[in-house]
Design a protein that fits this description.
- By secondary structure, the protein is of the alpha+beta class.
- The chain contains twelve helices and 21 strands.
- It has helices at 3-46, 51-57, 61-84, 87-93, 110-115, 146-149, 190-195, 292-304, 327-333, 349-353, 372-381, 412-420; strands at 97-108, 120-135, 139-144, 154-158, 164-166, 168-173, 178-184, 212-217, 225-240, 243-250, 262-264, 270-274, 287-291, 316-317, 320-324, 339-344, 360-364, 367-368, 387-396, 399-408, 410-411.
- It has a seven-stranded antiparallel sheet.
- The radius of gyration is 36 Å and the shape is globular.
Amino acid sequence: MSKNRKNIFKIVAIVFLGAVVIGGGVATVSFGIDYINTREKNETQDSGIGRFYKEVETTEPDEFVNVSNDIQTTHQSELLVKMLDVSDVVENAVKSVVAVNSIEYVTNNGYFGYYFGQQGTQTRESCGTGIIISRQEDRILVLTNNHVVEDADVLTVVFVDGKEVKAEVLGTAPDSDIALVAVPLENIEEGTLQAIAIAVMGDSDTVKVGNAAIAIGNALGYGQSVTTGVISALNREVEMVDMTLELIQTDAAINAGNSGGPLINSSGEVIGINSLKYSSTGVEGMCYAIPINTAKPIIEDILNNPKDAEEVEEKSYLGIYGFDITFQYQFMYGMPAGIFVSSVEKGSPAEAAGLEQGDIITSFNGTAVASMEELTELIVECNPGDTVELGVKVLKRNTYHSTIITVTLGNSKDYSEEKQN
């Protein structure tokens, strides 16, 4: 072995022995520190200071974590129970909720009725819900949906104490699906008057997405029931003939019979009128309510101009379903601002004038329109039989061309009668 290789082995051996010595010293020091800390800790525990830590020391680490999780879970469960417990709110709110029952007499004549053994008069029963909104000198006023009371020959309401009383329709607003029902005080027993209450009206303009939502109603005609959820969305547009409605969307279940009942907030205030008519089918958790601020002026109008339920207010009628072309549609699809015609009613003035699905209405008698709300206001200002000019954009070969369509507006009453027949 050469001299250089011997020197290298010596250096390696010295380094190795030095590392062993230093490591042992460090281990000794570390052991000494741990011993001192443990002794001080035990002395502290024995002296009665921090006995909690002594108890923790005897617990396995995993067990300690589980205890912590149990405490956290218990706390969250208590909070969840408090959030879901709406019994106090509902207890007061149900006093202002009534079931609305209607009976329609249907006459079946001719060969069809004879063949199926259904000649004569048949009864058709339906149920809904209403909200007590006022007590006047001689009557109680109940707010509900128009589709709950339309075509009713006999109408009754059932109060919270189970007493059923005859009622009558004071007035309706079919376009907004709102109706007022009057219950004479002379028909109501004193005990019932003591049991019921007037609903507290809220402010639907202050509602936020994520707020608590409670729906009360006569679901499936079984009597009052409660469902809970949150406000899912605001200003959801629903297309109607010659207009759109902006509704509150909630995941609180609204079933048949809930229509006309209140959607209330966590304070028990009415923020909307539940309507199954606008609820989406084939999906879950998408139910709608008419904002109470939308209903308030309509209620005032009905009170100032009461009319029979079968009477339909005469007003001008175009006959389209449409929606606003927002900036997003304009940017993404290159569409002009205006109202997109999604469908045209058969036999309507719009169809007679040649208006078609896909056309975009941009003006009404020379006034630019960019929303269904603006178009509706201009239509309402006209009288049935008036001739108007619509500025329309028509898509041809991927390009929109401007044209003018002349329309003679119809009568909404005639349209309603045709639908019934």
